[in-house]
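Q: Hi! First time doing this. I have a protein sequence and I read that you can turn it into a structure. Is that right? Here it is:
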Amino acid sequence: MTAVAARLTAHRLAAVPGPFREIGDLKRVRVAHAAGSAAQRAFVRSWVALVAGEEPERVAAAECAAALAGARLGGIDAAVLRSCGLAPRQAEIVLGHAIDEVAGGLNARTVARVRTALPDLVEAPVPKRSPLPAFVDALCRQPRAGATAPGRPRLIVEPPENHAEHCWAVAVYGGLLADDVGAEPGDAFLLGLAHHLHNAVLPDAGFAGEMLLGPHLEPVLQRLTEREVSTLPAELADRVRELLGHRADAATPVGRAFHAADVLDRVLQCHHHARAAGFTADQALVDLELVHAGPVADYHHAVLAAAGL
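A: Yes, that's right. Below is the predicted 3D structure, encoded as structure tokens:
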């Protein structure tokens, strides 16, 4: 990477923690009509589309658009908007406004690309659901280890995210960073989605546990990864195998997109737990105006004052 490109990337990276933090919160957004977090459901939805033969580039654009819109709309996605009676164009406008609220610091090419995917979110038929590889469900159930270090007790944080949620976040972040490092968005997205296939079988003991495996670690990871990759359709499996080789370093554009996305998600997840532990009522009442302006706001304030709250 040239010095100019490195400076541009650093400038762009300084702008992404805000939107990425909001996207990451979809790991914690749930709805009444479906099981699992919004992030987990997007992980499954992505594999459904890929196994059905959708091009990774198209899946990446649609899922990045859904993630950006979901950063502000939460569980109100394209399907919900349509079920509420909005016409396709009306739903696109709502989703587009949500994207615009959070995407200001992202690469303009990236934002333009994901916005072109809005019709896919609103109008495209749901792909015929073929039997999914077993790893999809397994990663939805496999918890992440959290922060560990060799020779030290593990730091347990509750509730833990699962591997589907982490892989989805890395896929989306990678897809949104790809233009900044010269990577193909579809490649960055697919690598993020697939980079923990071995954990479909191997419980996550974190860095500390991996180091205790010593010389067995790499053979185990390779053996388990190939076992899962081989359950994919042949063409998709070949592309995943090729992309997984880019996990080794950040010397290639797709490697840079992936590693930036991976480390950002791991650290933002820790920031989430720190924020949750330090939450105060004033943040809701004052910063977020929990009692917001409206015809009964004065009455609400009077009730709280009388109750000593």
